[in-house]
UniProtKB/TrEMBL annotation:
Organism: Geobacillus thermocatenulatus
Protein name, entry field: Transposase
Residues in Winged helix-turn helix domain copies: 114-165
Domain of life: Bacteria
InterPro entries: Homeodomain-like_sf, Transpos_IS630-like, Winged_HTH_dom
Pfam family, one: HTH_29
Amino acid sequence: MKRPRITNDHGWTPRTLRKQERKIKNALLRQRVMAVRLVMEGYLGKEVASMVNVCRQTVSHYVSLFNEGGLELLLHRDFAPGREPFLTEEQQEKIKQLVLTTTPAELGWDVASAWNTKLLQSYVEQHFGVSISREALRKLLHRQGLSWTRPTYTLAKGNPDRQKQLEKQMDLIKKLDHQGDRRCRSSVHR
């Protein structure tokens, strides 16, 4: 078993690496720097592995990355590209604007006054030729900064003056009730 060695310190010392560790917010990247620093301080690979809770081969990998490209290569992480989105950016923006500015009834889709995932699913399939699940649509809208709300209804025959009067009465009742609570609390503490 070969002991991991720092062959090129790239100008870093254990002290400067410790300072760098403190600046790094990501715990996994901080762990990489800590592993290299501990090897630089003279610990064995298996000791470092147990201290930072990784396997010995991972410590060796971190050391080889550091030797090859310094701290920059050690902290560089490639991420998998991930799945291609179902809809293009333009299509996603079009759906967002559709939800914000129109109703299904205005477009002749339904008598509904608000969009739901079932209606959007049909719209996307007809206009973009893409079959997308309702959950994927919900997540797409969430990423676009939209959230589902229920429409509030107003009574068509309601008298607006009487409604305002009722709101004022409710506010007065709340204030009186709150003052009563305060009086009860003050009498209990005496």
